[in-house]
Automatic annotation (TrEMBL):
InterPro entries: CB, DNA_brk_join_enz, Integrase-like_cat_sf, Integrase_catalytic, Integrase_recombinase_N, Integrase_SAM-like_N, Tyrosine_recombinase_XerC/XerD, Tyrosine_recombinase_XerCD. Residues 121-331 form the Tyr recombinase domain. GO terms for molecular function: DNA binding; tyrosine-based site-specific recombinase activity. It comes from the Bacteria. Keywords: Cell cycle, Cell division, Chromosome partition, Cytoplasm, DNA integration, DNA recombination, DNA-binding. The lineage of its organism: Bacteria, Bacillati, Actinomycetota, Actinomycetes, Bifidobacteriales. GO terms for biological process: cell division; chromosome segregation; DNA transposition. Residues 138-161 are annotated as: Disordered. It is found in: Cytoplasm. The keyword Iron does not apply. Belongs to the 'phage' integrase family. XerC subfamily. This is Tyrosine recombinase XerC.
Length: 337
């Protein structure tokens, strides 16, 4: 069922809600640089809001009032978490702001909508020792060591081909060394990596590019993968693998095409368990990298640039992690704590 089917009386000027949503989508694509997933989420949130209002008899954008939108928020908050509600309110506010700016409505009923406050949750991070253990273990496994967890529990024999071990070690080293997102990792191409000055070009949210550095351990792991592992994967790749990705992608799946995010997440979870550290995903490695950089004295704005955060406030979360760790160490070590 399309938007106009659900809102049969929407707009008496010949432009139904579907037309407005399509125009809004075009505006977002051209001006906001949103990812396809974010764009779909925004439009779905707006569509859902308008549908609920239509069920209550409000079918024309020009008739929607602040009270209508507050009623919608109250309805949605019964079944959605605050984080979801915050996203929905941002999407609806953005839509009505666009409608007002483009003369679709005479006043903006969403201008005064307050975004629900989300409780601050400290990100999960590894200690420096845990991160080093995880990286060292992955590197050793890439060289064929029979893996055993540090907790003393024997894990199933690792039957991964050598090429895949080299790839997995290189992915882990890259994630931790650069703090990049898993989506950014899978999007890396061969020509994005510059070994002469140990940097890589990363394409982040909103298709924005940045250059991030990486250290010697990541460089060694990447070189081993590119020179020894990647050719083996290509040699045994499936004919169905996409030729473009096979030629350009830095990290490949077992069939020769660009690796996907699910596989990367599986690798990080598996290797954290093997190393006997907390079971984490790729984003926790990003959190860990940021925290360890700040612990080591890195400037907050430099870390913001490296991580590709649009707001410094996002990066500042990691200073709270560092403070919490300091307080924990203080309590354990200081005699008058």
């Amino acid at each position: 069922m399309g938007v106009d089917d659900r809102f049969p009386d929407a707009g008496s000027d010949g432009h139904g809600l579907e037309d407005h949503l399509n125009a809004y989508a075009t505006f977002l694509k051209a001006n906001k640089g949103l990812s396809a997933n974010t764009l779909r989420a925004y439009l779905a949130d707006v569509d859902e809001c308008l549908h609920i209002l239509a069920l209550r008899g409000v079918n024309d954008l020009r008739e929607i009032t602040p009270d209508d939108l507050r009623s919608w928020m109250a309805h949605e908050s019964r079944t959605h978490a605050r984080s979801s509600m915050a996203r929905k309110v941002v999407a609806v506010r953005s839509f009505f702001s666009w409608a007002y700016d483009h003369g679709v409505i005479a006043t903006d009923p969403a201008a005064a909508l307050a975004t629900p406050k989300i409780p601050a949750v400290l990100p999960t991070v590894l200690t420096k020792a845990q991160a080093a253990r995880m990286m060292d273990d992955a590197d050793a496994e890439a060289q064929g060591r029979d893996p055993t967890t540090h907790a003393g529990e024997t894990v199933p024999k690792d039957n991964r081909p050598t090429a895949i071990r080299l790839r997995d070690a290189a992915m882990l080293e890259t994630l931790y060394a650069t703090g990049i997102r898993v989506a950014e990792l899978v999007g890396l191409d061969m020509n994005d990596v510059d070994f002469s000055n140990r940097t890589m070009r990363v394409t982040g949210k909103g298709n924005k590019q940045r250059v991030v550095p990486f250290g010697a351990p990541a460089a060694r792991a990447l070189i081993r993968w590119i020179e020894e592992g990647r050719p083996q994967v290509l040699h045994g790749s499936d004919d169905g693998a996409r030729a473009g990705d096979t030629r350009t992608a830095l990290f490949l799946g077992v069939r020769g095409g660009r690796i996907n995010q699910r596989v990367v997440r599986e690798v990080v979870h598996r290797e954290s368990r093997r190393a006997g550290v907390p079971d984490i995903g790729p984003h926790a490695l990003r959190h860990s990298a940021a925290t360890h950089l700040l612990d080591g004295g890195a400037d907050l704005r430099e870390v913001q640039e490296m991580l590709g955060h649009a707001s410094l406030k996002t990066t500042q979360r990691y200073t709270h992690v560092s403070i919490e760790q300091l307080k924990a160490r203080y309590t354990q070590a200081f005699p008058r704590a």
